[in-house]
Design a protein that fits this description.
Layout (H helix, E strand, L loop, with lengths): L2 H21 L9 E8 L7 H14 L4 E10 L2 E11 L13 E13 L2 E9 L1 H7 L13
Parallel strand pairs: 1-5
Antiparallel strand pairs: 2-3, 3-4, 4-5
């Protein structure tokens, strides 16, 4: 597949993510995630089932979550996207009771596409920023004297 076609797969994944947040329908990912999909995201299980369970946890904690792709680049079988995520902490999140606070964080992903589906995905996200924004960790003010 061409780099442009692979970007189309990631766009369909992002659309499936939006629809999942609205409906809770996990079947939406069957079209875009390979059965042997591997997710490389610190702190979460790497297999497809673990990834989908992680999404359920986030949906329960941030039911109004919205993701917006800001940039997307492709080279061969890899597609990189930068995403902005916004949501309200309305449910338990990793043992933290809901605070009603809004959060906005960024994520970056590299997806490897084969056969029209995402087979592997690496991700980095602003975990510290999310925890600070929902009040789980208090931000520290750093100052330097010159």
């Amino acid at each position: 597949m061409s780099a442009e076609a692979n970007k189309g797969v990631v766009r369909r994944f992002n659309e499936a993510m939006k629809q999942y947040w609205r409906t809770g329908n996990m079947g939406l990912f069957d079209e875009v995630l390979a059965p042997d999909f591997v997710q490389h995201w610190p702190g979460f299980p790497p297999d497809r089932q673990g990834y989908l369970q992680m999404l359920q946890m986030f949906r329960a904690a941030f039911p109004d979550l919205e993701k917006r792709a800001e940039d997307m680049l492709a080279d061969g079988d890899k597609v990189i996207d930068r995403v902005t995520v916004r949501g309200t902490h309305k449910g338990d999140f990793m043992g933290l009771p809901p605070t009603g606070k809004l959060m906005m964080v960024t994520e970056m992903h590299i997806a490897r596409v084969a056969g029209g589906k995402i087979v592997e995905r690496w991700g980095e996200w602003d975990q510290l920023g999310l925890l600070q924004q929902i009040g789980a960790i208090h931000p520290h003010v750093w100052s330097a004297t010159v």
